Amino acid sequence: MNANGDTRPVLTERQRKFLGFVLCCAGALLLGCLIASIVLILNRAFDLFSGVIWSLAISGMLAIMLRPIVTFFDEKIGLGRFASILLLYVLVITSAGSATWFLGGKVIGQLREFVGTAAEWPEKIEDKAKESLPAETWEAISSHFQAFKKYWGELVGSEDNPVAILLPPEQQEVYDNLNVEQRESFRALDEDERVSFFELES
């Protein structure tokens, strides 16, 4: 104790600065660990409840997007909130059903034709590349493309094992009884000719 009665500080100025620096680093480390733990917990929660969370998120976005339509039905037409929501549901279901009814058959037919020609895509790409690329460029990439063709053939089927055609169970049974040449001839038919073929076989 000095003459003025003041006690001597336990830590010097340098020690206090060092201790403050250590405490700040410890706090930053603790905060980082806390943030990492929260991220890990949220990640596992999203893994467990991702279906529910995404459903709620999409529902919330749709509710926000469709709110002006519900407000229009409620205020302009004079329907209540509940009746406006029901009317909106009916309109959406009717529109989706009409689109499926009128366009579904064409879309399915185009999809079947699209899938049925998948085995021919590498040849078409090769022909187009040979036409548009210089000979030196094609020579440089031809070996890689041949490897891709082999992989694609194993993936979707070769000419001897073509891509499966999407057919109803009864028609699929008839198709399975055809030999390789008959299947290739069948794949060359258009939609109407295939219908006539199955009518003759039934």
From TrEMBL:
<dbReference type="InterPro" id="IPR002549">
    <property type="entry name" value="AI-2E-like"/>
</dbReference>
<protein>
    <submittedName>
        <fullName>Uncharacterized protein</fullName>
    </submittedName>
</protein>
<feature type="transmembrane region" description="Helical">
    <location>
        <begin position="82"/>
        <end position="103"/>
    </location>
</feature>
<keyword id="KW-0472">Membrane</keyword>
<dbReference type="Pfam" id="PF01594">
    <property type="entry name" value="AI-2E_transport"/>
</dbReference>
<feature type="transmembrane region" description="Helical">
    <location>
        <begin position="48"/>
        <end position="70"/>
    </location>
</feature>
<keyword id="KW-1133">Transmembrane helix</keyword>
<dbReference type="GO" id="GO:0016020">
    <property type="term" value="C:membrane"/>
</dbReference>
<keyword id="KW-0812">Transmembrane</keyword>
<feature type="transmembrane region" description="Helical">
    <location>
        <begin position="18"/>
        <end position="42"/>
    </location>
</feature>
<comment type="similarity">
    <text>Belongs to the autoinducer-2 exporter (AI-2E) (TC 2.A.86) family.</text>
</comment>
